[in-house]
Design goal:
Helix content is 53%, strand content 17%. It is an alpha+beta fold and 408 residues long. Strands 4, 5, 6, 7, 8, 9 and 10 form a 7-stranded mixed sheet that branches. A 4-stranded antiparallel sheet has the order 3-12-1-13. The radius of gyration is 32 Å and the shape is elongated. The chain starts with a helix and ends with a helix.
């Protein structure tokens, strides 16, 4: 006798057309659990991607610098031919560039603001990131005018500035210098810890006001090919620099900082999200399993007469167990299909239209970020299916306890 056919019949009510209430509840529980787990994974992956992108927008993968306690010209770094050759010969380094920064004060007739002026150059990842965060204006054309400026919306609101305004800027170098700067663009990354203290201009201008030679700067920015291996790369680069310094190929010892160190508070927050996801997955799995087990037990009790008749006709316990196992597979699969269809549709719409907002002051993003990967979807569904199947083999054994004589 076909156990799959019998499973389909058992899952319906007396008229053979509608599913029993226990089946409907079990399907709904699986669908809800799958939907919540999909949303949790997609949103956390989205948060990680967006926050990491913003942290790396302000921080290069690796920064080479001198000891901050040094004074005078000793704090400057030079991109010498020997250092450039070392960086170029390192296989995992994809890009490096000289950078400079200096403290400054923006002054208007109504207010003033202290900031840290950082250099940026067209084509580097930081410039691409800033261009993507613009809310007004455009990325400066430093070739036409090196005294152009990118400021945050926080600074623009505080000083009541708009694109095209000329802003007197006081540079805190050995001799106080004032230079008019033109606001070319206004950006808003929603990272107030960065937006509130940084403004961006050209490298030649920072070098000019700081009295720095064209081949010198305050940092060397280094980018690698795989951010997930950043700690390994930083350790290897430290080793290469130490060897080059010991052998006299480079004349200076360089300190190394990574984006993981500079953005440690943000990455620590992201690590906590992994714990939240694990808790959500465990709770939703428990809810689905408890509901399915309860539904299975109710169904077995409801079908005691059917089980007794089948036993009286000579059906073995193993066959009856297979009937309810097939029923379990059908319930789990139906719930998974419904949960995936509903939640993936909502996640796709959110990924495209960002219709669910967030408080940017609390979450650093003004919409709920979503990242969908087929691998995570397949792994989640496979894990749910396997766990559900294994766990529900146990209640199916309850069929053996039913006595045909007592039930009939």
């Amino acid at each position: 006798m076909n156990t799959l056919f019998l499973a389909l019949r058992v899952s319906t009510s007396g008229n053979g057309k509608r599913s029993t209430p226990a089946i409907k509840v079990a399907v709904a529980a699986v669908a809800l659990s799958v939907a919540v787990m999909l949303a949790a994974i997609a949103i956390v992956l989205g948060f990680k991607e967006e926050i990491t992108r913003k942290v790396l927008g302000f921080n290069p993968h690796i920064v080479l610098k001198t000891n901050p306690s040094m004074s005078g010209d000793e704090y400057l770094v030079s991109l010498t031919p020997s250092l450039a050759s070392l960086l170029e010969s390192t296989p995992y380094i994809t890009r490096y560039s000289l950078s400079a920064s200096t403290p400054a004060i923006f002054k208007t007739d109504l207010d003033f603001k202290g900031i840290y002026m950082r250099s940026t150059s067209p084509g580097e990842p930081m410039a691409e990131f800033l261009a993507s965060q613009l809310v007004d204006g455009s990325y400066p054309d430093f070739a036409a005018d090196s005294a152009q400026l990118l400021i945050s919306s926080i600074a623009a609101d505080q000083l009541m500035l708009a694109v095209g305004d000329t802003l007197p800027t006081y540079f805190m170098t050995e001799e106080l210098q004032v230079k008019p700067m033109k606001v070319a663009g206004i950006f808003n990354s929603h990272f107030s810890s960065y937006d509130d203290i940084y403004a961006f201009t050209s490298l030649p201008l920072v070098q000019q006001v700081g009295g720095i030679r064209p081949e010198e700067g305050t940092y060397i920015h280094v980018y690698v090919d795989d951010f997930s291996r950043l700690n390994d790369y930083a350790w290897d680069l430290r080793h290469r620099l130490d060897e080059a310094y010991s052998s006299g190929l480079i004349y200076r010892y360089y300190d190394i900082e990574t984006a993981l160190q500079n953005g440690a508070n943000f990455f620590s927050w992201l690590a906590l999200l992994d714990t939240n996801v694990a808790v959500i997955l465990a709770l939703m799995t428990a809810v689905a399993l408890i509901t399915l087990i309860s539904g299975m037990m109710i169904l077995i009790l409801d079908k005691k007469r059917f089980i007794a008749i089948m036993k009286a006709l000579g059906a073995p316990d193993a066959m009856l167990r297979r009937i309810f196992v097939w029923l379990t597979i059908r319930v789990a699969f139906t719930g998974m299909v419904i949960g995936n269809a509903v939640m993936l549709t909502l996640l796709f719409l959110q990924q495209r239209y960002h219709f669910i907002p967030l408080d940017a002051d609390s979450y650093y993003i003004d919409f709920v970020p979503v990242r969908l990967t087929w691998l995570s979807i397949l792994i989640l569904n496979a894990a749910i299916f396997v766990v559900t199947y294994i766990m529900l083999l146990l209640p199916s054994r309850f069929v053996k306890t039913i006595n045909p004589a007592a039930s009939l």
